[in-house]
Amino acid sequence: MDIVNTIIPLAIVVLLVIAIAIVFIIQGYLEAKYNLRGRLTGKSKKKSTTFLDEGEDEKKCDICYGKIDADPIAKCACGKMFHDACAKPTGSCPYCGAGYGSMEVREPERTRCPVCGRFMKGSICDCGAVIPKKDETFVCKCGGTVDTDKPVCKKCGAVYESVTMKIYKEQK
Fold first, then answer.
1. Are residues 65 and 25 in the same domain?
2. What is the torsion angle, in degrees rounded to the nearest 10, for the CA atoms of residue 23, residue 24, residue 25 and residue 31?
3. What does residue 112 show for φ and ψ, rounded to 5 degrees?
4. Is residue 90 part of a domain?
5. Which residues, 6 or more positions from 75, have their beta carbon under 8 angstroms from its beta carbon?
6. Are 29 and 60 found together in one domain?
7. Is 67 part of any domain?
């Protein structure tokens, strides 16, 4: 009779340990699948996998520090980029001294929207897609900087919705 009295409580303890282990395994699976902690705290663990690669049209001239936009550029062999209108009068690169004649003069490479393929100006495409930069910020239509973790523009109050989408590229 003593053995039966010992085995029953021991079996109950073993069953409880197994049940607790199953609960922890299921909880870990659900957290991984549905990101429960991120939803409860309001901070999503998902980050955008598509970032806006800054095109040459978004960079600044290394002479006047103005935005390149669609103006022709003069690119020096040292890597510096200038408005053609700024580089031509100087006659040479102010950083390395290379002559203006050795610079590559052309139209700037522009950024394309990964959703629709159109040229973008800034972080917001005409199709409505908002693509953040690698620092996880983007520029609102009003010119204010918006952080992807808090997608509300501090300047104009515009609210942006965070959506993750898959982009399929045509295979050739």
1. no
2. 110
3. -105, 145
4. yes
5. 81, 82, 103, 104, 105, 106
6. no
7. yes
Coil, strand or helix: which one is 137?
strand
Q: Which domain holds residue 100?
A: 56-106
> Identity (one letter) of the amino acid at 55?
G
Task: Find the CATH number of the domain harbouring 68.
Answer: 3.30.40.10
Total number of domains in the chain: 2
Instruction: Please identify which residue in the block is written with the tokens 């699976």.
Output: 29
Q: Are residues 63 and 101 in the same domain?
A: yes
Whose CA is closest to 64, among 74, 49, 78? 74
Looking at residue 170, what DSSP letter applies?
A: P
Report residue 116 as tokens. 């629709």
Q: Using alpha carbons, list the distances in angstroms from residue 125 to 29, 65, 117, 172.
A: 37, 24, 9, 25
For residue 7, give both structure tokens: 């085995």
- Residues 57 and 45: their CA atoms lie apart, in Å, by 32
Summarize pLDDT for 15-46 with one digit per residue, the tens.
999 999 999 888 877 776 665 545 544 444 44
Taken as a whole, the chain contains a residue count of 172
DSSP tag of 144: -
- From 31-40, 50-59, 77-86, 92-101, the region with the lowest mean pLDDT: 31-40
